[in-house]
């Protein structure tokens, strides 16, 4: 095991060369990562030679690069970080165990309120220990204006927010939060239940290529019945569904990050279909916002490993 001093030195080097390097994998931002391989060839003298080349990583059964090394973040990168979840759509078959297990691979723990909202005071206190907040909406409002003010302060501080809704009417709190933070909402009910690939052009069905959120992803399951995000100038489209509707979009401006998503069924239905587990891990890693808070993330990692950051 590395000593605290050597770990500190290694992480300082990572920070000096770019904050994200300490947490992000070598595949970050690549939809189709490559790996080193040895290739044999004949030289000009007819002698058999070998050389190192880069080849596409082996795919899983859905066509995405296999292996957690091709996620956005390296395993355990966010040890000590907490994802807070307001889980209002609390059906028996949606216990959040699958997303929780995926997040744990990257070091995240999960703190959930299920089927109820805490007091605004409790929410604000718990969020002091969280790196991001996920809201999984239901068809009824649980959050009042005081809750929204707490979430807005959290968001304005640079902490990430993931806003999950689904087909009408399962976006009550999602729309309340989206309006407060992003000035938009989701609407409607479209049948999805398809796997989409990378976009072939702006506004076409599929995933946004070459972004940190879509690292290691060439295919993703869109969800069953899904709502449509209403685009505005603060959002960047992330996933267009098979019907051409905007399923998910993100905000990344002024040091603040959020994701708005109209297909929360991906979190518990057909989990093993294309890309869901990787996408969940990528989203959480991106919402940590290490590009802004890298020093804080590293300090937390050092604390758990028994080292103290230099003053």
From TrEMBL:
<feature type="signal peptide">
    <location>
        <begin position="1"/>
        <end position="22"/>
    </location>
</feature>
<dbReference type="InterPro" id="IPR029062">
    <property type="entry name" value="Class_I_gatase-like"/>
</dbReference>
<keyword id="KW-0732">Signal</keyword>
<feature type="region of interest" description="Disordered">
    <location>
        <begin position="43"/>
        <end position="68"/>
    </location>
</feature>
<protein>
    <recommendedName>
        <fullName>Lipoprotein</fullName>
    </recommendedName>
</protein>
<feature type="compositionally biased region" description="Basic and acidic residues">
    <location>
        <begin position="45"/>
        <end position="63"/>
    </location>
</feature>
């Amino acid at each position: 095991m590395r000593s605290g001093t050597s770990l500190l030195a290694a992480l300082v080097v990572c920070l000096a060369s770019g904050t994200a390097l300490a947490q992000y994998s070598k595949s970050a931002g690549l939809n189709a990562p490559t790996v080193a391989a040895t290739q044999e060839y004949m030289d000009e003298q007819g002698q058999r030679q070998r050389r190192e080349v880069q080849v596409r990583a082996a795919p899983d059964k859905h066509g995405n690069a296999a292996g957690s090394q091709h996620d956005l973040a390296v395993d355990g990168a966010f040890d000590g970080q907490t994802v807070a979840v307001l889980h209002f759509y609390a059906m028996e078959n949606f216990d959040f165990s699958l997303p929780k297990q995926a997040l744990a691979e990257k070091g995240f723990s999960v703190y959930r309120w299920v089927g109820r909202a805490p007091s605004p005071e409790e929410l604000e206190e718990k969020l002091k220990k969280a790196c991001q907040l996920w809201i999984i909406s239901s068809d009824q409002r649980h959050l009042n204006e005081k809750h929204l003010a707490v979430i807005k302060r959290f968001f304005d501080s640079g902490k990430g927010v993931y806003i999950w809704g689904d087909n009408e009417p399962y976006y009550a709190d999602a729309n309340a939060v989206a309006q407060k933070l992003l000035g938009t909402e989701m609407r409607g009910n479209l049948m999805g239940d398809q796997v989409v690939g990378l976009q072939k052009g702006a506004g076409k069905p599929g995933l946004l290529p070459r972004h940190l959120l879509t690292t290691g992803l060439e295919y993703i399951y869109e969800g069953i019945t899904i709502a449509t995000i209403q685009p505005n100038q603060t959002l960047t489209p992330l996933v267009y569904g098979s019907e051409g509707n905007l399923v998910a979009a993100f905000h990344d401006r002024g040091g603040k990050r959020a994701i708005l998503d109209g297909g929360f069924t991906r979190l518990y239905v057909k989990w093993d279909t294309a890309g869901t587990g990787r996408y969940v891990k990528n989203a959480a890693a991106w919402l940590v916002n290490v590009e802004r808070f890298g020093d804080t993330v590293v300090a937390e990692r050092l604390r758990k490993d028994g080292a103290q950051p230099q003053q």
